[in-house]
Write a structure and sequence with these properties.
The complex is a heterodimer. Chain A is mostly beta strands. Chain A has one domain. Chain A has one helix spanning 7-16; strands at 31-40, 46-49, 55-59, 65-70, 76-78, 86-93, 96-112, 116-128, 133-138, 142-143, 151-158. The longest helix of chain A is centred in the N-terminal third of the chain and has 10 residues, at 7-16. The mean pLDDT of chain A is 82. Chain B has two domains: 17-64, no CATH class; 70-264, Beta Barrel (Porin). Chain B contains three helices and 15 strands. The chains are: A mainly beta, B mainly beta. At the A-B interface, β7 and β8 of A face α2, β8, β9, β10 and α3 of B. β8 (116-128) of chain A pairs parallel with β10 of chain B, so a sheet runs across the interface.
Chain lengths: 164, 265
């Protein structure tokens, strides 16, 4: 039995070199949307908020809801379409609904056999309807992972006490 | 394996002695190999001219000239890459390579390595069918004491490698899980095919190894190689091959191991 011991490290060496047949990395990218909002109470005192609270987000043309009354989010992670260069999302916040438009290009990047292709994006412009959103600014136009912040939404909205 | 290693060690030790360099004895060297002056292995004395590689003193000691530049060539066939690549890839990759070098001044080995590889790999429902050739050029330097008859060498060297391959990538997934569910998007079922792709790659190598004379011109030897890819940048829309002939699985760096069987001519 002893004489076969030298085979073990060789097998371990070969096993360590085995290429991945399972993808072990993130293969989709998202646009990060942050908020700079002013919530105004009935005494017209405004309070700056930077977290999305009780937000509902859905892609236009998709039945699936991305965020459903989600609370205390510092950033929204929105996947962009890979088949067209404009992606739309509806955002319901504090009882108001707005649509966010993002114009972008799509750049395919082959990662590996196991991971396939990832579509990266570059944001050309962004705009919105103005029910509760004031404007959208581009922070970082390149979308190549799922961690960065790309757009900032500016908004001024009355708080819920206005409706009581 | 243990037996071979022991034998290699003995041969390496034997390489350290046996003959004397002519210059150390004050014998003039004529590297033009003019037999009319002094044929090889004839009896020579101090102050004589030595033509060719060898001569012999009156006491029987052989002397040699290390001023002869060209000292033969070697052909080597690599068996380790073929076995390792096939084992690691579970038979999906076949790689063959051989090397040719010349021995200059008992120390320098300009080398040319040629090979071919074929990769029929699949993963996650996608297929890579590629094949191509490669070559490397470079230089090895022998760290052992010079010896005219022993071919043993401890080598360090560098290489520059180039490969060219043609490949097909089929069934490559496109990742967009949220919009995929919408039913609006159809990019060939979210799988793409790329046919008749061509890619040339270039890389550098630093290597170390040895060669041992086993019997007359027959040699065994091995190299460990560290490889670093030069062609890392990716053009927009490029789908890169999974495997690079002569380099290995695509990545910024790679390791390689060769075990050669060679013959000196």
């Amino acid at each position: 039995m002893k004489k076969y011991y030298f085979i073990l490290p060789i097998i371990l060496l070969l096993a360590a070199c085995e290429p991945d047949e399972v993808c072990r990395q993130e293969t989709s990218v998202t646009a990060g949307i942050v908020l700079r909002g002013i919530v105004v109470d009935t005494t017209w005192i405004g309070k700056e908020v930077t977290t999305w609270d009780t937000i509902t987000v859905q892609g236009v043309g998709n039945d699936s809801i991305l965020y459903d009354h989600s609370t205390y989010l510092s950033v929204l992670r929105l996947p962009l379409r890979v088949d067209t260069d404009v992606t739309q999302f509806t955002l319901l916040w504090n009882g108001f609904t707005d649509t966010l438009f993002i114009q972008h290009d799509n750049r395919m990047q082959f990662i590996s056999m196991a991971c396939g292709c990832v579509i990266f994006h570059h944001i050309d412009s962004a705009w919105c309807t103005r029910h509760w959103m004031d404007s959208v600014t581009i922070i970082n136009s390149t979308i190549e992972n799922y961690e960065q912040d790309n757009l900032r939404v500016h908004s001024t909205v009355p708080d819920t006490t206005w409706f009581k | 394996m243990k037996l071979v290693l022991k034998y290699e060690l003995v041969v390496l030790m034997m390489a350290m002695a046996a003959v004397v360099r002519a210059q150390d004895l004050g014998i003039a060297i004529d590297s033009l190999r003019m037999d009319s002056i002094a044929p090889a292995d004839t009896i020579i004395e101090k102050g004589d001219r030595l033509a060719g590689d060898f001569g012999r003193l009156k006491d029987g000691t052989r002397v040699y000239s290390d001023s002869v530049i060209y000292q033969g060539m070697n052909i080597k066939l690599d068996i380790a890459t073929t076995i390792i690549e096939a084992a690691v890839s579970k038979g999906k990759i076949m790689s063959f390579e051989m090397a040719w070098n010349v021995r200059l001044k008992q120390r320098y080995y300009p080398t040319l390595e040629l090979g071919y590889a074929k990769a029929d790999a699949d993963a996650n429902g996608g297929y890579h069918l590629g094949q191509g050739g490669f070559f490397r050029v470079g230089l090895d330097i022998n760290g052992l004491r010079k010896h005219p008859e022993r071919l043993n060498a401890l080598l360090v060297g560098v290489r520059v490698g180039t490969s060219m391959q043609k490949y097909d990538l089929m069934g490559v997934t496109v990742n967009s899980p949220y919009w995929e569910k919408s039913g609006e998007i159809q990019i060939d079922g979210y799988r793409l095919n790329f046919y008749d792709q061509f890619k040339a790659d270039c890389w550098g190598e630093i290597l170390a190894g040895c060669q041992v004379q086993v019997w007359e011109g027959l040699q065994f030897g091995w190299y460990v190689r560290f490889k670093f890819l030069f062609t890392k940048s990716v053009a927009q829309g490029d789908v890169l091959p999974y495997y690079i002939p002569g380099f290995g699985y695509r990545g910024e760096t790679n390791w390689g191991f060769n075990y050669y069987i060679g013959y000196k001519f």
